[in-house]
Design brief:
heterodimer; A: 527 residues; mainly alpha; three-stranded antiparallel sheet; 15 helices; elongated; B: 415 residues; 69% helix
């Protein structure tokens, strides 16, 4: 249990640490923040501060940096009013996995130490990339880094989830199969990133795709604070608020070193306070519209998951019909051949061959139909995956709100202390020098905290806006993509059913000519 | 749909044609149908009874029409009697005795069995020789008590001798194939044509069995697809509810469509079973029945040869005896005459089987071409109809889905 003095000192130190560095003119970020928006829509920024940006991105953004980078409200409208024209191409493929033995392998551990690198090939005409076709080698760890950094830099956005680490599966599966699965998953991940109007322009992605040699993105922070971040979210989970699924890499605010532990514990205290409702902060998530939407999205995700599963089962069943139809065809081909050679019943042999051919043709159509259906229905799976990004984005919002609330509470607490001290010092004639010093210190701290609170508020508002815009985009794209999916699926089914019908109608006609049977319209058969 | 199925119930076997009438019988007409299965009894003793209706103009029958109630074991009795007394003739096969399914007695199982019995009766009725059988007449006319007596009485008569190939046939098909092909017995015919035929029959069974297996799988999988479509439809409808708006309606329509199609597919499953899989099964059984005839023929041949050998030997001994011991010659002479008579009989029996078998094979091939031709044709039509229904169902969605305004977002955001 910390003494009050120590507490205050820490707070002061903490507050100063956060903001003093950022407020300094010489801070590397200042120049950058003055003009360019973080999203890179304005290409000039990329050109003007080329190497500077590389430097900046060597260090993961601190809490302060994160706040500052979102500060400029004017950039917000710029981001979202300008629709990204998709005539800007960004095509990424993942190829050529190679095993690289790890140097200085820990033979003591007895583990075969090697890792796999993949060739990431980019084809683009986006200006900021300075090049149109290039490739780099990256390992999975680099992808994790990229994903983590995107999560930090683009809070509030619906970020596509990266492929899983699968540490267990990598031991169990055949190496080659695992590597191929991962390669395919990576390709999908990058295509989703490239499709995201904001992320595709990010510096992080660009560096990943283009920078030769070692990836110039530092991985995110120490494990301790990440663990604590997890702990900070725990009470909310315990009290059953929402269904925010927390990814391991999700860090509300990346922290630096021990000092931030204090803030973290405070946030923990705050969230507990919130939940028990003892201190009512001014801002609560009063956006009922948002909450309702969130609920609806949860509903959607649930049903989407079901539909996605059923789609898999359907496609498989259809495939199996096609397969057995093919086998049936083969069986009758054998019958036909056998009878033809034996010579007893050439007509029967011809009949069998006719049906066999039809069955083989039909089988082919079933398989083609299934392949197309898979492509269409895959949209369901895609959106299910993308919805994971939603959870993260909403969590970003909650966390930002929590920060605001914490800081507000700080301010309130300090103000109360100031009041107490001032009341106490009034008892002394002429004032108490110690008290006065303390009061002025506190007032200083309050001022800084208020500034922090304002920035946190802006950050929160920013994230809210990102949420809103992303939701809108999500709705629009989902409508469009699902409609296309349904159209495609229905057309595929109709088209192939007609083809299969034609095959069998021909067979029926041919057969009748062989045996000279009287024609019977087949519709008579089923009433 | 019902009328059609009844029409096909005879397995495509045409009514008795003039060429098949018995000598001097004029235009014989014998039509039998097996209908109205009724579950009787309870528990382990439950069984199904069938109505067997006969229409005929044959003088031997007591009247032009008759209806009796029979159960499966009665049909088995008839089959055994016919087999015993008509060596050389391919007895139409019975459906399997299925000890397990009997207890479940699903509606489908009962219908499949009823049909198979109907086909069985009609094949007998249209067979030039079998339709004149005394046993058949009894089967079609006797009251239930008489039938029961006959059934239990004959049980002991038909005790299977170890060397009886009929028994082997019922147990293990493979062994019969071997026996037919003469793999384990030294004494056999050497006619190359017949050899060829034997191999043909064995191979034919394999090929038809494979085709039947695949047809069974196809029926099963098409039914499963029907089931799965139903689940898919449901989940899509729920998703549609969630989405709302025009997209929601599109999903709901898709789901409804899948549901309807599922219902159709599952219904057609039974039809496909009856018109395709079952007839193929019946033909596999028929080929097995041919193998029984082949086994009978082999046995008759063996007996003929053994008796001929025996007879020759005895004659030789007799000659010797006449020279050495003329007094004993008398007794032995009687034996020799006896054996010679038996030998002649065996020869006649064998030759009769050969003669009958030849006719039977011709009949079989004609029937196979005709019957399986129809089966294959019906199969093609059924598949065409299935595909047509599928196309029709999904097509109903297109006008709505192809509307260009469908994909436009109607959502208005408010923070």
């Amino acid at each position: 249990m910390m003494g009050s003095d120590e507490e205050e000192d820490d707070e002061r130190r903490g507050a100063n640490f956060f903001f003093s560095s950022a407020l300094q003119e010489s801070h590397p970020l200042a120049a950058k923040l003055a003009d360019a928006d973080q999203f890179g829509f304005q290409e000039s920024s990329a050109q003007s501060s080329g190497s500077l940006q590389e430097d900046l991105l060597l260090e993961p953004p601190s809490y302060a940096d994160a706040i500052f980078s979102r500060d400029l409200s004017h950039s917000m409208t710029a981001v979202f009013s300008q629709t990204d024209s998709f005539s800007n191409v960004l095509t990424i493929t993942v190829t050529d996995p190679q095993k690289i033995p790890e140097s200085g392998a820990s033979l003591a551990a007895g583990v075969a130490s090697s890792y796999v690198t993949y060739l990431i090939n980019t084809h683009t005409n986006i200006a900021s990339y300075q090049g149109s076709d290039f490739s780099v080698r990256r390992r999975f760890r680099d992808v994790v880094t990229l994903a983590d950094r995107l999560a930090q830099s683009f809070r509030g956005f619906f970020i596509p989830p990266r492929p899983d680490k699968n540490t267990m599966e990598s031991q169990v599966m055949q190496k080659d199969e695992f590597i191929e699965n991962r390669r395919a998953a990576l390709e999908k991940y990058f295509s989703r990133l490239a499709a995201h109007p904001v992320l595709r322009r990010s510096d992080e992605l660009r560096l990943f795709l283009q920078a030769e040699g070692k990836l110039p993105l530092a991985p995110t922070t120490d494990m301790a604070s990440r663990m604590l971040d997890g702990a900070a979210n725990l009470p909310r989970q315990l009290f059953g608020e929402g269904s925010t699924i927390l990814a391991p890499h999700e860090a509300a605010q990346p922290t630096k070193g021990g000092r931030d532990l204090v803030r973290l514990f405070k946030e923990l205290k705050q969230s507990v306070t919130n939940d028990w409702g003892s201190t009512r902060p001014a801002i609560i998530e009063e956006d009922r519209v948002f909450l309702k939407k969130k609920e609806k999205l949860q509903d959607l995700e649930h049903h989407l998951s079901d539909a996605s599963q059923q789609a898999e089962v359907l496609v498989k069943a259809q495939q199996e019909v096609g397969e057995v139809m093919g086998e049936l065809g083969l069986a009758f081909i054998k019958v036909a051949k056998f009878e033809m050679e034996a010579g007893f019943t050439p007509v029967h042999a011809a009949d069998a061959k006719c049906v066999a051919t039809g069955a083989v043709k039909a089988s082919r159509f079933y398989r083609e139909c299934t392949a197309h259906c898979v492509q269409h229905l895959d949209t369901l799976h895609e959106y299910l995956a993308l919805m994971q990004g939603l959870h993260t984005a909403f969590a970003d919002r909650s966390n930002a709100l929590l920060t605001v609330q914490t800081l507000m509470s700080d301010v309130a607490t300090n103000n109360m202390r100031i009041e107490k001290l001032e009341a106490a010092s009034n008892k002394f004639f002429g004032g108490n020098s110690t008290h006065n010093r303390k009061v002025s210190e506190l007032k200083g701290a309050v001022k800084v905290t208020e500034e922090a609170r304002d920035l946190a508020q802006k950050e929160y508002d920013c994230i809210k806006e990102h949420n809103r815009a992303e939701l809108e985009r999500f709705e629009e794209e989902r409508q469009r993509d699902f409609t296309n999916m349904l159209q495609g699926f229905a057309h595929t089914q109709v088209g192939y059913a007609e083809k299969i019908c034609n095959v069998w109608t021909e067979v029926a006609k041919d057969e009748m000519s062989y045996s000279g049977r009287i024609a019977e319209p087949f519709s008579q058969f089923y009433k | 749909m019902e009328p059609f199925l009844l029409q096909r119930s005879a397995g495509g076997v045409p009514p008795l044609s003039p060429s098949m009438t018995g000598a001097g019988a004029g235009q014989s007409f014998l039509s039998i149908s097996v209908t109205d299965p009724v579950k009787l009894g309870s528990g382990v003793q439950a069984y199904i009874s069938y109505r067997v209706s006969t229409k005929t103009n044959m003088q031997e029958y007591r009247g032009p029409e008759k209806i009796v109630i029979r159960r499966f074991s009665d049909f088995v009795w008839l089959h055994e009697r016919l087999a015993e007394r008509n060596k050389g003739i391919v007895i139409p096969p019975l459906p399997e005795k299925s000890a397990v399914e009997k207890f479940r007695f699903s509606a489908e199982f009962i219908e499949v069995r009823r049909r198979a019995l109907d086909v069985f009766m009609n094949r007998i009725a249209t067979h030039p020789q079998l339709h004149m059988s005394e046993d058949l007449k009894n089967f079609l006319q006797a009251d239930e008590e008489a039938m029961e007596r006959a059934r239990s009485a004959e049980g002991s008569v038909f005790k299977k001798k170890p060397s009886d190939f009929m028994q082997m046939f019922k147990d293990v098909q493979m062994k019969v194939s071997d026996a037919v092909l003469g793999k384990d017995k030294p004494v056999e015919e050497t006619d190359p044509e017949y050899e060829k035929l034997k191999h043909y029959v064995v191979d034919l069974e394999d090929h038809l069995a494979e085709a039947q297996r695949q047809s069974m799988k196809l029926v099963k999988r098409q039914r499963e697809l029907g089931q799965v479509l139903s689940d898919f439809g449901k989940s899509v409808k729920l998703l549609g509810n969630c989405e709302g708006g025009s997209l929601g309606k599109a999903f709901a329509d898709l789901g409804g469509c899948a549901d309807q199609l599922s219902f159709k597919l599952q219904n057609k499953g039974l039809d496909l079973l009856l018109i395709f899989e079952e007839p193929l099964k019946e033909y596999v059984r028929t080929v097995q029945a041919i193998k029984v005839v082949m086994a009978d023929r082999a046995q008759a041949y063996r007996q003929h040869r053994e008796l001929t050998e025996s007879s020759k030997l005895k004659e030789l001994n007799l000659e010797k005896l006449k020279l050495l011991r003329p007094d004993k010659a008398g007794e032995v002479e009687a034996e020799v005459t006896e054996i010679k008579a038996q030998s002649d009989e065996a020869k006649l029996r064998y030759e009769e089987i050969v003669r009958l078998m030849e006719k039977e094979m011709v009949q079989f091939q004609e029937a196979k071409t005709r019957d399986l031709g129809l089966v294959l044709h019906d199969f093609a039509c059924a598949q065409a109809q299935l595909a047509s229904d599928t196309a029709d169902a999904w097509r109903t969605l297109l006008p709505y889905l192809d509307n260009p305004h469908l994909g436009e977002s109607t959502v208005t955001e408010s923070g």
